[in-house]
Fold this protein.
Amino acid sequence: MLPVVNGTFCVTVMKDRCINARMPGKCATCVEVCPYDVYAIDKAGNVRVQNYNACVGCRICAEYCPEDAIRINPAESEFLVRSPWTFPQVEEIHYKARTGQYMLRGFGTMGDTPSFDNITIVPSQIASPAPRDKYREECNLEVVIGEGACENPIRLKYPFIFPAMSFGALSREARMALAIGAAQTGIINNTGEGGLLKDETWLIKGYENEARTLKRWQPGGYLVVQWSTGRWGVSADYVRAGDGVEIKIGQGAKPGMGGHLLGAKVTAEIAAIRGIPVGSDALSPCRYYDVQNLEDMKRMVAFIRDVTDYKVPILFKLGPSRPYEDVKACVEAGADAISIDGLAGGTGASPAVVTQGVGIPTVALVPPAVRALKDMGVHRKVKLFVLGGIRGGLDAYKAMAMGADGVGFGAAAEIAMGCRACMACATGQCAYGITAQDPKLRALLIPEEAGDRLANFIKATAEEVKILTMLSGHDDIKTLSEEDLRAMDFNTAAITGLKLIGYEGRVPWWDGRGGSSNTG
Amino acid sequence: MSLVVDARGRDLRSVSMELKAAVTKGPVVIQEAAHLHGLVAGFKSGEVIIKGDGGDYLGVLNDGATIRVKKNAGHYLADNMTRGLVIVEGDAGYGVGAYCYGGTAVVKGNAGDFTAVMNKGATIIIGGNAGDEVATYMLAGDLVIVGNAGKNLGNYLIRGNIYIGGEWESLGHNTLLEEMSPADLTKLHGYFDEYGIDADLTSFKKIVRRSEKPFYK
């Protein structure tokens, strides 16, 4: 399960600082925390770097080292001189030749793909509506899902969601932390397809105890229960427990494949919820066995609405495939909101070839998805959330100015809890207890602390969005438009239809095609 | 005396609202409901009798109700049921008892492809023949087929039992033929007796998983 970045980092242990170098056997923290066995300890208690090439640059060892004795630095890039036969490529071939198995990993696509980074935000000056004062004026960040379609729409305080990350992929503690984080910030936490933890139902509403006698976190968040192809832990009670129900069609980590929870993470508790043997892989089907066409999907939406007494919104989740056609199909099926997950999305385990090379980059999904909503006359009514490698306020603003209603934070939420992106999620050996199922590792994650970190991250990111929204002359995220953005290179202009810097116009093939935003 | 709900020309929401109120008072008969898909969804109790044919997704998410269909049912009968009983006097379509965690689904006639797919604990009884890919990725429960089955029977069976009185075109991955035990025969006899199915117990074969973890090499 080697990730693609190995062989590109230098590991240096400073012997004058290292406790083990001075007193062999007294410290082996780096050996214990490294998910890739970069370090080893011999019989005499001496720690040594046994495999420089296995380092993925997560720097967990440096964080945990009590004497700050470790430095991890990027090595000179092999890609310039050895491509295509770089060390990681050679290692991958050896791995397959040795084991007869393909590689698995989590954490989405690595490397250079089209992204929001090549888009810049245009501030207001004299020729446009004046900027708004972030410190003294209001800015509306609220997003409502399901208004007019159900009795109890979801009213997000901020335009963010914690997207589907299942119990199983995540630890119980991480699931609880997400609920606490959502409760403090008034946003959605999505169960994913691993069933529902009872604790989530009251934590998400901001209560400190199951009896719901003590409200500790304001304003209270929203629980979205996912309905997926494996239907793990799904019952009428499960469906009714949600403030919304999300029908999963696909995900960024493995579009065209079902969820994939490795047996190493299937503990007795997870096995009981999912109805599978302990230690057995939980492989969700790639498609619904009870849906054969769009008519069936419409009927599925109809009966879910009926089971929930027409009270809660129905959401859809798409992988990065054919955004225009897929979004239209979701609208036809009856979606109140659609999350579309990009190539960079991938908190879950996936075959490396899929996570690395299958799907459309997130930034390129937005224009066709928005155009589909506009063509169907439901833009801003059926809400669009963009997922997949969204890191903070800049990405969120850009996605929303391109026409999305909000964004989701999956990997960023894990990082907010403490994760350092070591990409070993699928092994169950997470050094922060976020994706671990081992009780010893899980104990490292305190739900209240991690929930506070998540809430801080969401609040800070909301402030970033507010700053950017107001400096570009708006007091409501719903009025953002593509006119607030410029592409900084030709490729980005070609992909997004945004005006190109300097030229101040769109590339010719976008003429007459309409844009992705409010003003298109 | 049963209450009667006439579904002719009405949509799911309207019929369902009337049904939800009526079922608390006693058995309810629904007539002309073949055009409604997802009827009697997620009920926790009560008895509903479909006079005539039922639509698709009948009894989906059933959590304790008894549902009787006097003629045929559509696709995905008792989909994702957790408790309760669904009995069809005639045939049913594709995906009978898909994703069920519990309860009992009985089809006295034939059933389509992918019957009992991902069954996680229900008892599913087919009085006639079943189609292809039946009991694919079944994780628990019993599937009983009095007649024949098609291709790939029990593909990727994880747990649970398949009992079949007739023949099959092919067995799927991870399946194993096992001797019928006296307990198996007693169980089947009980099923047939309870649901009024005529079957020759001596012809039945039992299929179980070969390995608990078939996805591992």
Summary: The CA atoms of residues 291 and 300 of chain A lie 8 Å apart.
